[in-house]
Amino acid sequence: PLSSRCCAPSGAAPAMNCRAEVLEVSVEGRQVEEAMLAVLHTILLHRSTGKFHYKKEGTYSIGTVGTQDVDCDFIDFAYVRVSSEELDRALRKAVGEFKDALRGSGSDGMGQISLEFYQKKKSRWPFSDECIPWELWTIKVNVVNLANEQERQICREKVGEKLCEKIINIVEVMNRHEYLPKMPTQSEVDNVFDTSLKDVQPYLYKISYQITDSLGTSVTTTMRRLIKDTLAL
Amino acid sequence: AMDTDLSSQDRKDLDKFIKFFALKTVQVIVQARLGEKICTRSSSSPTGSDWFNLAIKDIPEVTHEAKKALAGQLPAVGRSMCVEISLKTSEGDSMELEIWCLEMNEKCDKEIKVSYTVYNRLSLLLKSLLAITRVTPAYRLSRKQGHEYVILYRIYFGEVQLSGLGEGFQTVRVGTVGTPVGTITLSCAYRINLAFMSTRQFERTPPIMGIIIDHFVDRPYPSSSPMHPCNYRAGEDNGAVYPSVEDSQEVCTTSFSTSPPSQCVFTVTKAHFQTPPPVVTDTLKVPVMGLAFSHQLSSSRLSYQPAALGVGSADMGYPVLFAGGLNAAYPHQLIGPGKEGGVPPVPNQPAHGSQADQERMCTPLEGVHYSAATPSSSEDTETVSNSSEGKCGSPHDLLETIFIRKVGAFVNKPINQVTMANLDIPFAMFAPKNVELEDNDPMVNPPESPETESPLQGSLHSEGSSGSSTGNTHDDFVMIDFKPAFSKDDILPMDLGTFYREFQNPPQLSSLSIDIGAQSMAEDLDSLPEKLAVHEKNVKEFDAFVETLQ
């Protein structure tokens, strides 16, 4: 089931709510990549726009987002992703690392991959820019081992059905029309969107993952920041 | 009633959005049941035919069917647009698989900005539709169609009829978008009892050659529209051929302003185009080969080139621009953001009449080139949420309102202030020089508007929640994230701010919880007599102990 919470510190400073959604899947080892890509691409489909072209006096026009169907090889499942090779490459890279880490020693086949959307807030020197998350998706993965071909066939179908449910869950969240960053002026656009791709413009995002070791404690192996991260002083 | 709150321009825009949203919805659904993978290209420069900033092709027959079903109406309460997907076997058995419903209910959102928020949410809803159409059971069936069965679609308008879906059908909601005239809802009811399919063993049968099957299945509604296959045969002996579409296909490029979203402006171009003779007919034709598709569909799928199809090309026809959210009759009253009521001095107040006559244009390829005052992009506004808020520019900015008017190649009305800037309209030579429609078209000649006041006068303050949903509280919040210098800690790899946030709300101590406290108090009280008795017994020991202390 999809659980959601808002993480909002109640300290002295008022803070922006960051909504968090959690999805869980159990897959076979060779299905990890496709399942993660399906979920991440579905989220990014909803969180990407066409490229903005700013004109005089604050108007902008928006480019066109194309889409394409992707068939999975190891799952009876197909999904739609944004037509952007750069974006696909970036996601595949992250998912590939996650898959390798899951396979690595010390892992019991459990881990999670997170997709966080954030905004940047420029700070004055000597403080570095801040990253303020506004939406966090966490996909918990449990890798199962199967004994024979028959089980694998059933798993193909079952995981396909599960992913259908996840897509429906994601769409439900998107449909709530909750907080989205304001459309930025030209000077602010890089604080809200990732403008580095040439054909589409997703909201600023970062992907990270964690692998749970066999003791059940969470061991942060690496944080991978793919795009436009800020460096701490 | 409720329309008085919505300016006529907004209303026109909204109706247009809903109309094209309905057409695009049908396209997405039918294309998702064609049995092939769909692929369209992203384009960083907006082209005129990309409604909702999404590359969704328009199959002409599908548009034709949808327009026929809608018959000029829009979805309203009790009048829903339905796309029915069904399956028909080569033996003639047929079964309804899904009904996709585009409905309107009465719940209005008066505050929402038509030209901006509604548009963007409709775009998001189309993306959701793209995703959801791949996860219902009919998708996988449609991918395997061709030999033993085909997938058909039928569009109807009116009351939703779900009885053909069998027992226990399930519903999935794609999404909703609130508008000032009602809430648009898109959902799908789908059959889950596919038993009749799964028990059959499908062997490869030789394809059926050239049989025309009259597929008018028994329907309870005699007036219902005929079914159409989702995939088509490459143009052989066709029966009826659709006449080329004579009304112009409207396309839209939107341009947005980062000032208040009410300043979204649109370019609407009208494209005259000749559709190639479509191959679908009113009767079902079983495809000759399993994956036979008409030429136009396969070519359209390979690369998204709207001009190549001649479909929906923004480059033809005469571009017309109208300002969303603004009174079309008062184009010079583009008012900057941040004015709390009141209209700032506007230098040019052209006569109403001349305004109505003016055509406003822009290049079809780009977008709009003007807007109102620049939001102040002072670097002092650090708060993210206020990045595009209207700090109103000076009145000087207002004076810079420009109408850039570019002329299409075949507009022959006399116009003032023509900037012959950009005549590189591809395929202009193919566009018929057919201008008689232009005179009657309200887009080109907006009807004389009554003396409405500028819709911006009412609410000129920047909407706090432009771009966001009901986030009226979000603008006030600023996240302050502490990153003091030299504070990096390798042991616990998180910065102070994250640490603070994470550990800020520890669970409450159980002893402080009232219930447990009360419980233990009661227990304590009960056990007191016992304890006292024990202590009394040991009184000598206690006394001795006290002695040692003295």
Automatic annotation (TrEMBL), chain A:
Where in the cell is the protein located? Answer: Preautophagosomal structure
Listed GO MF terms: protein kinase binding
Q: Which Pfam families match?
A: ATG101
Biological process (GO) annotations?
autophagosome assembly
GO CC entries: Atg1/ULK1 kinase complex; phagophore assembly site
> Origin, by domain of life?
Eukaryota
Q: Which UniProt keywords apply?
A: Autophagy
Similarity section: Belongs to the ATG101 family.
Protein name, entry field: Autophagy-related protein 101
Q: Which organism is it from?
A: Certhia brachydactyla
From TrEMBL, chain B:
Ranges annotated as biased composition (Polar residues): 373-389
Q: Where is this region: Disordered?
A: 337-357, 370-392, 438-472
Keyword annotations for this protein? Autophagy, Cytoplasm
Q: Which GO terms describe its biological process?
A: mitophagy; piecemeal microautophagy of the nucleus; protein localization to phagophore assembly site; regulation of autophagy; regulation of cell population proliferation
Source organism's superkingdom? Eukaryota
Q: In what residue span(s) does the Autophagy-related protein 13 N-terminal domain sit?
A: 96-196
Q: Which InterPro entries match?
A: ATG13, Atg13_N, HORMA_dom_sf
The main location is: cytoplasm
Q: Where in the cell is it found?
A: Cytoplasm, Cytosol; Preautophagosomal structure
Look up keyword rRNA-binding and say if it applies.
no
Compositional bias annotation for Low complexity: 458-471
Entry GO terms, CC: Atg1/ULK1 kinase complex; cytosol; phagophore assembly site
Q: Which family does it belong to?
A: Belongs to the ATG13 family. Metazoan subfamily.
Instruction: Tell me what this protein is called.
Output: Autophagy-related protein 13
From which source organism is this entry? Certhia brachydactyla (short-toed tree-creeper)
